[in-house]
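Example record

Each entry pairs one chain with its bound ligand, copper (II) ion.
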Amino acid sequence: MLKNLKALAGLAGVLVASVAAVALAAKPEPWAILFQKPESPVMEQIVSFNDYISIVIILITLFVLALLIIVVVKFNEKANPTPSKNTHNTLLEVAWTVIPVLILVAIGIPSIRILFFMDKNPAAEMTLKVTGHQWYWSYEYPDHGNFSFDSVMVPEADIKDRSVRLLEVDNRIVLPVETDIRLLFTSEDVIHAWAIPALVAKIDAVPGRINESWVRINRPGIYYGQCSELCGVNHGFMPIAVEAVSKEAFKRWTDDKKKQAAGPSGVEVAADAARPTTGSAR
Ligand SMILES: [Cu+2]
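Structure tokens for the complex follow.
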């Protein structure tokens, strides 16, 4: 059993190393219990807020545990046979009301600040519109010729090397790094939620309305995410894959997409496909 586990861990290590050598791939790792490494300003703030709140939780828990231990040791029947008859202590009552209020304020202020920070970016340089469907995503690029495409999970049987099972899609979203990108979310049928652990917090995609957020991707790589709202029988099979590339590679990719969308004849499309491409844009 231990041997198997060790072999598995070794294999996982090799796989991770081979992927890391090619490019950053933000995806679930075996035995991970913490956040994925954040690669956008919003997720950086959310992760540090989580660290801060964890400290508050740990301190409160230790304090309550200490009180319980004191009560058990000092005030049990043997140690304290004649209990005190006190029923009120004004100072103590004010303290145990005011201190928790102060703690909540200390948590609430940074929390609300992050909510506003992730809600809108007035300096956004481009827009990506995300639409949820049962059970796949579609994407529109209104600032780059308004082309659109569907992004459907690659079935397990068709997974090629280095792709991630249940997280790989046929058409990845390509986005430029170091660019403020406005994200608009809506849905065609039921509520879905767009979530990429390393980049974007869960944002609901609601039929009949548009939700907004934004992302700025720190460095090139492949970022995996999933639908995070129970949306039906194939909820677990509508993953998200973002390929973050340089601004130049992104421009080449959008130019190609525009040409494909505009090209009415098959000849043009075929010529486009035959042209050698450089960089990781696809
Ligand atoms: Cu969904």
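The first helix runs from residue 2 to 22.
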